[in-house]
Specification:
heterodimer, A: mainly alpha, MetI-like fold, B: mainly alpha, 2 domains, about 80% helix
Chain lengths: ~290, ~325
């Protein structure tokens, strides 16, 4: 099924309607706008800044922000803006990968449990509840502590492996409400395989919901990654916003009053995650007609 | 009701077994050899000394025994409260080190969580469907929930601590004092407690307010609210009913948020060098003290399970349907 041109007319109308409300929703526009700007800074910044690696000592120590060093320098004379730009990249990567992996697991478990029901559901539900109760960060702490060399990818992988349960639960509940609808029954009667029913009949009917779940997982992964970095279990090489915060507190930026070192990374994390949440509310309003009027 | 608790206890029991198993597995099945890496980090060069240390660590972990024996031994030690010996504060048992830190973490977390929960819910319920308030509470709430705990802690420490000089920014009490039950010490303790408490409280507040606001709006749109309104019931009454219904999912929400709140407390403690579990974890990581780290993990898991169970009991008290054996809680 390769196709965007042969959508049924009805579906096209729905899409156009969603787009109509999307471009008129301020929450959505502001939210995605902020995320997009920061993403561009993260993507293009390192290219424009030239080849200096982010941890290199480029100037005098503890310089306040100036035209040359936009965010000042650290106690060691590293340029905070360069670190910030590279850190944004890492943060987006951790969010996208961690959130993506979590979303895939959540969908697999949520769909199968919700559609199959019975014993399969019982077992998967138990698994979900168990992983749900275990404090995520505590598990990640010991896993990362035993890893000698840590990379952003590995960090994101483990975040993804531990943060799916609530999403799986939500998707299961949605699937549950869809599985006894007529069109699903019809597909089943005509002998379509379970896998195909889930992919073609159920998932498309909750695509907006799935997308919103992914956004929340994305934001959550960024926060968890930042906490891990801050505790000292971040990637062993490179920079991230969490690592910047960790370095700033470790090398007494607080006591020395180097606010330009610790304010930008935290502000960026808050901006990205907050913008994602706000965009999520906007999306909810776009897809859910009940919420539109206010 | 028996079924409800039976099911919950089964889940918690399973979770505990899984947590212990994970805790046991990680040092054994992670890529790399923990004993070798510990030896490498200790920077001992004499071959005889290295050999002695290898024998010591292998024996300590019990790596020379068959794997099922190791697993059983691990459980046995756990039930005897034996978490091993800390490397950071050498001959002290890990359990003692942790028990010394737990009161600080609980003293910080319990008031912060309960107060933020209570005030956040009230605030959210009050703001819902009140245009002006809603327009301020909602954005502020989103900014707060999106904020990393340690960042607000750092900002508060810098603003109110270092710059304004109103509060101390490190430690649980002044180094000049010895812990005792004197007024001077208690006041000092409270003084050090204020900033960490405040930052935990403020970040957690936003999430509860948003959650409650959304739930109240949902409840106010439901049939019973419309019916009450049609009967001419005062708005106050309708809102009270809405609140009572909306608080139920919020209780489940509290259980779901426990992990995040613990994580928040840990990083906040690290910012303020507050002598709780967070600082212990930092020390354990810095000193490669794996026994301490794993012991802390077990304590956190047990604490979260207990808290979950308490929340379940509260849920039964608040929601009569679970008592009557009708629709159960999620």
């Amino acid at each position: 099924m390769t196709t965007t041109t042969t959508l049924p007319a009805e579906e096209r109308v729905v899409r156009r309607e969603a787009l109509y409300f999307a471009v008129r929703n301020t929450k959505l526009l502001i939210g995605f706008g902020i995320v997009l700007v920061l993403l561009l800074v993260g993507l293009l910044g390192p290219l424009l800044l030239g080849s200096a690696p982010p941890n290199e000592y480029v100037a005098g120590p503890m310089l306040p922000p100036s035209a040359e060093h936009w965010f000042g320098t650290t106690t060691f004379g590293q340029d905070v803006f360069t670190q910030f730009v590279y850190g944004l990249r890492t943060t987006f990567l951790a969010g996208a990968m961690g959130g993506g992996i979590a979303a895939v697991i959540a969908m697999a478990i949520g769909f199968v449990a919700g559609y199959r029901g019975g014993l399969v559901d019982e077992v998967l539900n138990m698994l979900t509840n168990v992983v749900l109760v275990i404090p995520t960060l505590a598990v990640l702490l010991i896993i990362n502590a035993y890893l000698g060399i840590r990379s952003v990818g590995l960090q994101a992988l483990f975040i993804g492996l531990t943060s799916w349960p609530w999403a799986a639960r939500a998707i299961r509940a949605q699937t549950f409400s869809l599985r006894s609808r007529d069109f699903v029954d019809l597909a089943r009667l005509s002998g379509v395989s379970t896998r195909r029913i889930i992919m073609r009949e159920i998932a498309p009917n909750m695509s907006s919901y799935l997308f919103m779940t992914f956004i929340l997982l994305f934001g959550g992964s960024i926060l968890i990654a930042a906490s891990l970095d801050f505790i000292g279990l971040g990637p062993t090489e490179g920079v991230s916003l969490g690592l910047m915060l960790q370095n700033a507190t470790q090398w007494s930026a607080l006591q020395l009053g180097l606010w330009w070192w610790f304010v930008p990374p935290g502000a960026a994390i808050t901006a990205v995650v907050g913008a994602l949440y706000v965009a999520n509310v906007g999306l909810d309003e776009v897809f859910n007609p009940k919420l539109r009027e206010t | 009701m028996r079924q409800y608790f039976g099911r919950k206890l089964l889940i918690y029991g399973l979770t505990f077994v899984v947590a212990v198993t994970v805790n046991w597995m990680i040092p054994r099945f992670m890529p790399g050899d923990p004993v070798a890496s510990m030896l490498a980090r200790s920077r001992v060069s004499q071959p005889a000394a290295v050999e002695a240390m290898r024998a010591y660590y292998t024996n300590l972990f019990g790596f020379d025994q068959p794997i099922w024996q190791q697993y059983l031994n691990f459980w046995g030690a756990l039930f005897q409260g034996d978490f091993g010996i800390s490397i950071w504060v050498f001959p002290t048992p890990v359990a003692d080190v942790i028990l010394g830190a737990v009161p600080y973490t609980l003293g910080l977390m319990i008031p912060a969580v309960l107060l933020s929960y209570w005030i956040g819910n009230r605030l959210g319920a009050f703001a819902a469907r009140r245009k002006l308030l809603d327009n301020t509470v909602l954005p502020v709430g989103y900014v707060l929930t999106a904020m990393p705990y340690m960042w607000l802690a750092v900002i508060l420490a810098w603003g109110l601590g270092v710059t304004a000089g109103w509060f101390p920014v490190a430690g649980g009490y002044s180094f000049a004092l010895q812990p005792s039950w004197s007024w001077a010490f208690l006041v000092n303790l409270l003084h050090h407690w204020t900033l960490p408490f405040l930052s935990l409280f403020v970040v957690a507040l936003g999430g509860w307010a948003i959650g409650m606001r959304n739930m109240i709006i949902y409840e106010l749109e439901s049939d019973y609210s419309n019916y009450l309104a049609a009967l001419g019931a005062p708005t106050r009454l309708i809102r009270r009913y809405a609140f009572r219904n909306a608080i139920l999912p919020q209780i489940t929400g509290l259980a779901l948020q426990l992990g995040v709140l613990v994580a928040g407390a840990l990083v906040t403690e690290i910012v303020f060098s507050y002598p709780g579990l967070g600082s212990l974890i930092l020390k354990a990581i810095q000193n490669q003290d794996f026994f301490l780290l794993q012991g802390t993990f077990m304590f956190i898991v047990i604490g979260v399970l207990l808290a979950n169970f308490i929340i379940d009991i509260v849920y039964v008290i608040v929601d009569p349907r679970t008592r009557a054996g009708m629709a159960g809680a999620a």
